[in-house]
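Why do we bother with holo predictions? Because pocket geometry can differ from the apo form. Keep that in mind while you read this record for adenosine-5'-diphosphate.
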Amino acid sequence: MSALLDIRDLRIRRKDGGNVLRGVSVTAAAREVHGLVGESGAGRTTVTRAILGMLPDDMRIAGGRIRFDDSDLLDMHPSPRRRLLGRHIATIPRDPLMALTPSRRIGRQVADVFRENLKFGRTESRRAALQLLEEVGVREPEHAAERYPYELSAVARQRVLIAIAFACSPKLVIADEPTAALDVTAQMQILRLIADMTESRRSALLFVTHDLSVVARMCDRVTVMHEGMVVEQGPVSQMLSKDAQPFTRALMASMPRHDRPGEILEPVPELVRAELRARVAEYDRRHR
Ligand SMILES: Nc1ncnc2c1ncn2[C@@H]1O[C@H](COP(=O)(O)OP(=O)(O)O)[C@@H](O)[C@H]1O
Ligand SMILES: [Mg+2]
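The structure, written out:
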């Protein structure tokens, strides 16, 4: 079976010459929940931005390819690419207030997705929007639909964004630490909702997280990154087992779990870091 998402040897550099992604390969099957884990600066966000064609101005692609559903994203012309992304790849942004249009009522913003992507008419898209708001757990959807983004709580706004992301049953949803701005109780609810929607819409999920309990509970497979390299990739059971590579084991032990607040975490041992540093240095010697 061919992968839904197939990133091969993706190399990204800063325009000043520094390497950001050092030959990253990630594959995810249809309906797979794939965790992207690593310490801050590992390159996880850069991977998601490369898929979405939204790299910062000072980064460029130096090599590799990204295939999605049999299209080569890096070779596509901008407009078919935008259509493909709009219809089949959705994102759950981290900051719901920034991601919603401040001056447009919630119900309209959800309905817009049905109008634009599925060409629903006005009545049909409004009905679909209300139904979806209810499905994602927005209370009193009729009432909420008439509100502006700032009038909703942070959790309700995140529910709205999840509604928008899953509205058209995308093949892939990308979520880059989507609960970072929420308190622990809200995080649990939102994670559950993301898992439920991923399941019911039969979407694949590429999930950037630093939370080990999220990895353990939600992911089918995991890619561990460090300094723009893939350290290890495999089924979650393997990645959480004693058979995982030393850095994977150390990273997992250093990751917090939202369901065990206050737990004492093990820092990644210096010896393990030193080995990775050597790999990075070796890559950089070959790719100046
Ligand atoms: N806008 C940017 N311009 C240049 N470098 C950036 C930018 N954003 C991030 N970086 C650098 O790219 C590397 C990877 O960062 P990032 O993909 O954000 O990692 P992660 O999401 O895993 O924390 C880091 O070294 C970071 O400093
Ligand atoms: Mg990031």
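Residues 184-200 form the longest helix (17 residues).
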